């Protein structure tokens, strides 16, 4: 079996961590139990370019239980948990191509390795796998029936491909499911980003000024958790509706040029390029801590910061100090990559339970329905979204009401008024 991981000897530690995560993933577990009986993915080859974490391992095991032949590679050079990768290889015989800290060349070699078994379905987180297929491995496109995409950044890229007429197969935007972005993006990103910042720095948030760049669902989550830790939260936005919502939620809203001199912590979550630029670094106070929790590190103008710095050194794990000419120091966490995965462990498994339940069920949906779909980006079918919510509530012991026949008739009629 082909694979490329850091160390097979880490496998037992990885297995224990995967088991720990799986205990908080009851929805995915129930899907796995059904998949084991029905084998709905028998004969399907899947290439999964995802963060190689304990939760991703549970997804890979579920797909394998359904009969799929799975290959896994990393969707970010710093997000791999090496013990998890080892466990998947050693205990589950799932080929993994991922090493935490891999360079860019190795990262793309791993993507090509994941594609080498000619997949029928792709699972992506950021669209690097799909982009590589369309630009460098078009010979493999004939085998592919469909795909899924996990995150906002990837959905943006894929919709651009679809609008440009270059997307060659249908893809489901898992990120757009209510059971994904309302929970994973908000509660998962919120908690795990703060976790990554605290693990990397051991700095106190209470009483600090915390600048959140972008008030989408991820930004909302980080702002909520930073405020809960006692920070004064400032939001920067380009969308007037989101900015207005942030104001109504009780946060200060201002342009980045005004926020730069005030912030003690800065976190970007926009999916766009150069959100914090050279002029912003120039205005920051000594000791400012800068990080990113959007998918790619391009949200920070690190080249501009490099050009400004007179020295650079690593002062803690995942903390690089840039000293400017006037003696001020700016600290960048996790090389500007996803701080929640670079410096911590990513989202809690209980929230990834819903996200990866979407992935598993959408893979099954793609196998059964792809031949009837156009080459564009689709939302998660409503039936799948509601079923996952129902299963999650049941696993939590939460019961809800059902409409009475009278209520159903009322909601479906127009005759009754005041």
From TrEMBL:
Protein family per UniProt: Belongs to the adenosylhomocysteinase family.
Enumerate the cofactors the protein uses: NAD(+)
Q: Which UniProt keywords apply?
A: Cytoplasm, Hydrolase, NAD, One-carbon metabolism
Instruction: Give residues annotated as binding substrate.
Output: 53, 125, 150, 180, 184
Q: Where is the S-adenosyl-L-homocysteine hydrolase NAD binding domain?
A: 185-346
The UniProt annotation places NAD(+) binding at: 151-153, 185, 214-221, 237, 293-295, 340, 347
Q: In which pathway does it act?
A: Amino-acid biosynthesis; L-homocysteine biosynthesis; L-homocysteine from S-adenosyl-L-homocysteine: step 1/1
Task: Name the enzyme group at the top EC level.
Answer: hydrolase
* One annotated Gene Ontology cellular component of this protein: cytosol
An example molecular function term from Gene Ontology annotations: adenosylhomocysteinase activity
The subcellular location is: Cytoplasm
Q: Which organism is it from?
A: Desulfacinum hydrothermale DSM 13146
One Gene Ontology BP term is: one-carbon metabolic process
Q: What is this protein called?
A: Adenosylhomocysteinase
Q: What EC number(s) is this enzyme filed under?
A: 3.13.2.1
Q: Pfam families from the entry?
A: AdoHcyase, AdoHcyase_NAD
